[in-house]
Write a structure and sequence with these properties.
The structure is a single chain. With 66 residues, the protein is mostly beta strands. It is globular and about 35 Å long.
């Protein structure tokens, strides 16, 4: 599975996610303005906090690790 979270103009300093605990997920930070994709280190599951750059038009691509 894959999820996409987009914040648009109002960007918080972190994202709070509640992912299924039975799976592990990789997360990429997508800067839609700069056209960059930055993978975060590690894998995530359950409730987690993801630090974000304090700028607009940031998205998270969350992908299940097989």
């Amino acid at each position: 599975g894959c999820y996409l979270a987009y914040s648009g103009r109002g960007q918080p300093g972190e994202a709070r996610l509640s992912l299924p605990e039975v799976n592990r997920y990789s997360i990429d930070v997508i800067d839609a303005w700069e056209m960059t994709v930055t993978p975060l280190a590690g894998h995530y599951s359950g409730v987690c906090r993801i630090p974000l750059p304090s700028k607009s038009y940031i998205a998270l691509r969350i992908q299940k690790v097989e």
